[in-house]
Amino acid sequence: MKALIITDMQNVILNHKNFDDEKIKIEKLISVFRENNEPIIFTKHVEDDSEGFFYKESEGAQIPSYLVKDNDYVIEKTTPSMFRGTNAQELLEKLNVDHLIIAGFNTEYCCLFSSIAAFDKGYKVTFVEDATGTTNDETTYEMPGLDIKDFIGTVLDWSGAIEVLYCEEYLDKYNNL
Q1: Domain span at residue 93?
Q2: Mind listing the GO molecular function terms for this protein (predicted)?
């Protein structure tokens, strides 16, 4: 069974810059998974430091309420990987999931780390490149012309271990829509 993993789609990130294109694609994936009665798991980066961006009690750390429905799952994490120090593995086993579809934020951190960790744990992983986003840019990494999503997608694809698709490619391949 497949599960959709939406990493860190939290207010502090969504309010950082315009992510309209990524949000449309992520919401399309969510809609398809709901229609197919397949599990949707949101990860939520949290920290105990009340001064931090992801302070668990702050509005910034919250996932917009319109996204999460009663039958969705939310995993709180404190590292870039959805598996480290969480119940993710147990939840996926309970749901009989063997294929993870990764989307969300930040492309080069939580999406990347969770994809690699999932592969290492034996899951089939599909990284939906254009349904990820990042608050960072070429200036952050002092690499003029860097397209972070394309770079991460290319590295994962070249690995031969993780399937990398665009949203429409994913929908065509797995849902015939």
Answers
A1: 2-175
A2: hydrolase activity
